[in-house]
Specification:
The protein has nine helices and 46 strands. It is mainly beta. The strands form ten sheets. It has a 22-stranded antiparallel beta barrel.
C-alpha cells in the first residue's frame, strides 16, 4: 500500500545548529496540542536499507551508512547530487576530468580519484560522474568504507546508491510537483515533474511512470576583452602596441636576442555587446518501470530511464568563485550536452529458504561539450619562452593576434552488467549471500580536430594544417567476479561475518593523437606491431566483521576489508608544451605509459545506539585506511595529464551522526566527519613528497538541519526547515600546482504549509550567498595562466515549491 502522507507528518527532520533559528521564530513554543501529541509519540522512524544486499534496519547494519528517505529528500529540496551529498559526513566532491559533464568526482573518507567511489542506480553500476535528477527516488544510501566484497572494483572508498520507487499492484496514485525561483546574478529557474502508479492486473501487474523537465538560468556574463599581453624585443622595435603590460615581468633574451619588453597589444577582433547568462541549461527525462508477478513468488521488474541536459555554456567562474564575468576575445558559445539511458530487468524468486535475484542492465551515455581556446593559444604563442621567439624569427612579427577556435570533447560510453545472487533466510544462526558478477564497458573518448583557421600562416608554419589538437581514445574493460558473505550468530548477542570477492579484470587501450599541441602524431602503444595496450589481473578482496549487541539500545562492531581499483594506460606528454614541467618533475613520459591497479585495507570500529526512549539515535565510527600504489591523476599546467602509482598513503578519521526528536513534529540531525589523508611513502614518484596531503579531501565536513511541523488550523500544518553545511579546506592539483580550496559554509531555509494532499513552500537556498571554491576546473583545452576556471555553487536562490499528491 502507498505510505500515507499524514502518517509521516510528525517524523523526520535534520540539524542541530538550526535549533536556535527555530527557537528565534517561535517554532518551539510549547502548545497543548504538542503536549497531547507527545504522549502518543512512537519514536524515530525505523529506516530499512539494503546496503548488504539483504533487508535490515539502519541500526542493525554493521557498517557506516547514511540513508536519506524520499520524504526527507523532498523536504530539503534535493534534486541533484550536491544537494544530498552535503548531508553525508566525509563525502567530498571535486572535478577529476576535463569539462563539466564527465568531471564530477565524489570521494568517501579521503579516497579520492577516478573510479574510487561506486555509484549505483538500483543494482546497476554507472560512472560516478553521472548525475541523475533525484526524482521519484525511494531513498539514497551512502556506504562508507571499501565495499569490494559485494560491489566490486569501483567501490574502494565506498558506494552511493540511488534506490528508485517501485510500482504497487492495487492502488492508483501519483504526484505532481513544480518549482519557480530566481537566482542572484541570473534570471528565472523553473521545473515540473510528475509520477503516477497504475495497476494493470490486480495483484499481477503494475506500472509506474515519471517525467520531468526544467530550466536553470545562467549566472555568468561574457564581455569583450580589448587587449592581450605579449613581449616586444628591444632590437625589433615596439611596433603598434597599446602600452606596457602590467601583468608580465621582463624576460631574459633568448636565441641571442636582447631583453624582452612586456607589452600590451590591442585586440583586433570586432567588439561585441555583453552577453548575459551564457550558461543557461535545460534538462529533461523520464522513467518507466513495470512490476509483474509472472509465477507464484516470481517477480520481474523491467525499467527504462532517460535523461538529457543541454547547456549553452560552461558554468565556471574565472579566477575566483565570486567573479561572474568572463572576458573573451570572441563571443563564442561553450555549448554542451549529455544524454544517457539505462535499460534493466530484474527477476526475483522468493522461496522459504531465501531468494534469488538476477539483474541484467545496459547503460548508454553520450556527451559532447566545447571550450574556447583562443585565450589560451593567444597567451601561449605570445609569452612562451620557446614559441614566442620562434614566431618572431619565422614571421618578423611582434605578436600573434587572437584567432577564433573551439576545442570539443565527446565521449561514448556503454556498459553491460549482469549479477545473480542468492540471499538466505534460514531459521537458524547461519545466513549467507553468494553471487556471480560480470561487467563489460566500452569507452570511446574523442577530441575531434580542433582548428584555428589561419594560425599556421600567423605563426610562420608552426601549426601545420591549422590543427591544434585531436585524439581518439579507446578503453575497454571486462570484470568477472564471484562474491559472498556469510554470517554466524555465535551467541544471541555476538555474530561474525566473513566474505570476499574473487575477481578477474581485463583492460585494453588504444590512444592516437595529433596536432600542434601534441608535437605532431603519437600513438599508444608506441610499438606499431601492437594494436592495443593490454592488462589483466586477478585477486581476492576479503572482509571480516564482528558485531555485538551490548544492550537493547546499543550495538558495536569492528571490521577489516580490502578494496581495489583497476589500472590502465596514459596518453602522450608532448615535450614542447610540457617539457619544462617534465624536467622539473624529473619525469620520463615512457615511464608512465601504463599504471597498475591500486588497493587499500580499511579498519573500522563503530557504535550504533538508540537513546531516550527512541527519541535519539547516535552513531559513531572511527577508521584507519592503508592505501598502496595509489593511482593519482597528475594534471600538468600545459594541459596534459598522466596517472601514476604514487606510493603509499594513510587516512585516519571518524564520523558522528545524530538524529533526535525532542518533541513531536521536531526532528534534528547532525553529522560530523574528519579525515586526515597524507602520503606516507612516495616511493620515488616524481613530484610527490612524504607528508603531502591527498588532493580533493576536505579535512572537516559538518551538516545539520532542523524541521518542525506544527498545526496552524483545521487540516493544515505549518513547516519550518533549515539545512546547514560546512566543508573544510582541501587541496587541488588539477592544473599542475597545488592550490588551496578554502573552507566554505552554506545555509538553506524553507517555510510552508501542508494541507491535505498539498504542500506549498517558500525557500531560500544559499541564504548567505556563499561562493564556494569546489574545484579548479580541468579545462577541455588547457588552463590559461592566471585565469583558472573555478567550479562553484549556485548563488542565492529564492523561490516557490508546490507539490500535490492524488
Amino acid at each position: 500500500m502507498r505510505e500515507s502522507n499524514t502518517s509521516n507528518l510528525w517524523r523526520k527532520l535534520t540539524g542541530s545548529t538550526c535549533f536556535a533559528a527555530l527557537i528565534a521564530t517561535g517554532a518551539l513554543t510549547p502548545t497543548a496540542y504538542a503536549q497531547e501529541a507527545e504522549e502518543a509519540f512512537g519514536g524515530l522512524e525505523e529506516i530499512v536499507i539494503t546496503a548488504s544486499k539483504r533487508e535490515q534496519t539502519l541500526q542493525e547494519a554493521g557498517m557506516a551508512v547514511t540513508a536519506i528517505g524520499a520524504q526527507d529528500l523532498e523536504r530539503m529540496g534535493a534534486t541533484e547530487f550536491a544537494d544530498f551529498a552535503v548531508r553525508v559526513p566525509n563525502l567530498g566532491f571535486g572535478n577529476e576530468s576535463d569539462g563539466r559533464f564527465n568531471s564530477n568526482s565524489p570521494a568517501i573518507r579521503g579516497v579520492f580519484g577516478a573510479n574510487t567511489t561506486g555509484f549505483y542506480i538500483d543494482d546497476t553500476p554507472v560512472p560516478m560522474s553521472v548525475q541523475p535528477r533525484v526524482i521519484d527516488v525511494s531513498r539514497v544510501e551512502v556506504l562508507r568504507g571499501p565495499q569490494g566484497s559485494l560491489y566490486g572494483a569501483r567501490s574502494m572508498g565506498g558506494t552511493i546508491r540511488l534506490i528508485t520507487q517501485q510500482p504497487e499492484y492495487n492502488e492508483t496514485f501519483g504526484s505532481a510537483h513544480a518549482t519557480l525561483s530566481t537566482v542572484k546574478e541570473g534570471d528565472i529557474n523553473w521545473s515540473v515533474d510528475a509520477s503516477v502508479n497504475l495497476p494493470v492486473i490486480e495483484d499481477k501487474l503494475a506500472v509506474r511512470v515519471t517525467g520531468y523537465y526544467g530550466q536553470n538560468s545562467g549566472v555568468y556574463d561574457r564581455v569583450y576583452k580589448p587587449t592581450f599581453d605579449g613581449f616586444v624585443i628591444n632590437d625589433l622595435g615596439e611596433g603598434a602596441a597599446a602600452g606596457p603590460s602590467e601583468d608580465l615581468p621582463p624576460a631574459p633574451g633568448l636565441f641571442g636576442l636582447d631583453e624582452w619588453v612586456p607589452t600590451t597589444f590591442n585586440n583586433p577582433a570586432p567588439a561585441f555587446d555583453k552577453n548575459e547568462n551564457v550558461d543557461d541549461e535545460r534538462y529533461g527525462g523520464f522513467q518507466l518501470t513495470a512490476k509483474a508477478e509472472i509465477a507464484e513468488n516470481l517477480t520481474f521488474i523491467p525499467k527504462f530511464m532517460y535523461q538529457k541536459i543541454e547547456a549553452d555554456g560552461l558554468p565556471f567562474a574565472d579566477i575566483s568563485p565570486d567573479n561572474f564575468t568572463q572576458e573573451r576575445y570572441f563571443d563564442e558559445d561553450e555549448a554542451g550536452m549529455e544524454r544517457w539511458w539505462l535499460a534493466s530487468g530484474t527477476l526475483k524468486w522468493d522461496m522459504d529458504t531465501g531468494s534469488i535475484t538476477s539483474s541484467t542492465s545496459y547503460f548508454d551515455r553520450f556527451l559532447d561539450e566545447g571550450e574556447e581556446e583562443a585565450t589560451f593559444l593567444t597567451q601561449l604563442l605570445n609569452t612562451h619562452p620557446v614559441l614566442r621567439p620562434l614566431v618572431g624569427f619565422f614571421t618578423g612579427n611582434d605578436r600573434v593576434n587572437p584567432i577564433s577556435s573551439i576545442i570539443t570533447e565527446n565521449e561514448a560510453f556503454t556498459s553491460f552488467v549482469h549479477e545473480t545472487r542468492y540471499t538466505s533466510a534460514y531459521d537458524g544462526p547461519f545466513q549467507f549471500t553468494a553471487g556471480v558478477f560480470y561487467q563489460r564497458t566500452k569507452n570511446h573518448l574523442q577530441y575531434p580536430p580542433a582548428l584555428a583557421i589561419g594560425l599556421d600562416a600567423e605563426t610562420g608554419g608552426l601549426v601545420p594544417g591549422d590543427l591544434i589538437f585531436q585524439t581518439e581514445n579507446f578503453f575497454n574493460t571486462k570484470e568477472y567476479a564471484v562474491f559472498g558473505e556469510a554470517t554466524y550468530d555465535i551467541t544471541e548477542a555476538v555474530s561474525i561475518t566473513a566474505g570476499g570477492r574473487y575477481y578477474k579484470t581485463e583492460t585494453d587501450a588504444f590512444i592516437e593523437s595529433d596536432g600542434f599541441a601534441n608535437d605532431g602524431p603519437s600513438r599508444v602503444p608506441g610499438d606499431l606491431s601492437l594494436d592495443k595496450v593490454k592488462q589483466s589481473e586477478t585477486g581476492f578482496n576479503p572482509k571480516v566483521l564482528v558485531q555485538a549487541n551490548v544492550s537493547e539500545e546499543m550495538d558495536v562492531y569492528a571490521s577489516a576489508s580490502k578494496g581495489f581499483r583497476i589500472g590502465g594506460a596514459n596518453g602522450n606528454l608532448p615535450a614542447t608544451l610540457c617539457g619544462a614541467e617534465l624536467t622539473a618533475l624529473n619525469l620520463n613520459p615512457a615511464d608512465v605509459q601504463t599504471y597498475d591497479s591500486d588497493s587499500l585495507w580499511s579498519y573500522e570500529a563503530g557504535v550504533k545506539s538508540t537513546l531516550a526512549d527512541n527519541r535519539v539515535s547516535l552513531n559513531a565510527a572511527a577508521y584507519l585506511i592503508k592505501w598502496s600504489d595509489i593511482s593519482q591523476q597528475n594534471r600538468l599546467g600545459c594541459g596534459f595529464q598522466y596517472i601514476a602509482n604514487a606510493g603509499k598513503a594513510e587516512i585516519k578519521g571518524f564520523e558522528v551522526e545524530m538524529m533526535a526528536a525532542p518533541i513531536d513534529g521536531l526532528t534534528l540531525t547532525f553529522a560530523l566527519g574528519y579525515a586526515d589523508a597524507k602520503i606516507t611513502d612516495p616511493e620515488g614518484v616524481a613530484g610527490v613528497l612524504a607528508g603531502d596531503e591527498l588532493q580533493g579531501v576536505p579535512n572537516w565536513t559538518v551538516a545539520a538541519s532542523g524541521e518542525y511541523i506544527f498545526p496552524v488550523g483545521s487540516n493544515t500544518d505549518g513547516i519550518l526547515r533549515a539545512d546547514f553545511n560546512h566543508y573544510g579546506r582541501s587541496f587541488s592539483t588539477n592544473n599542475g600546482d597545488q592550490r588551496t580550496r578554502p573552507a566554505w559554509t552554506a545555509l538553506n531555509l524553507r517555510a510552508g504549509v501542508i494541507r491535505d494532499d498539498w504542500e506549498v513552500t517558500l525557500f531560500v537556498d544559499n541564504l548567505t550567498n556563499t561562493h564556494a571554491n569546489m574545484a579548479d576546473s580541468r579545462s577541455i583545452a588547457a588552463e590559461t595562466s592566471g585565469r583558472q576556471r573555478v567550479v562553484s555553487n549556485r548563488p542565492r536562490t529564492i523561490g516557490l515549491d508546490v507539490r500535490t499528491r492524488f
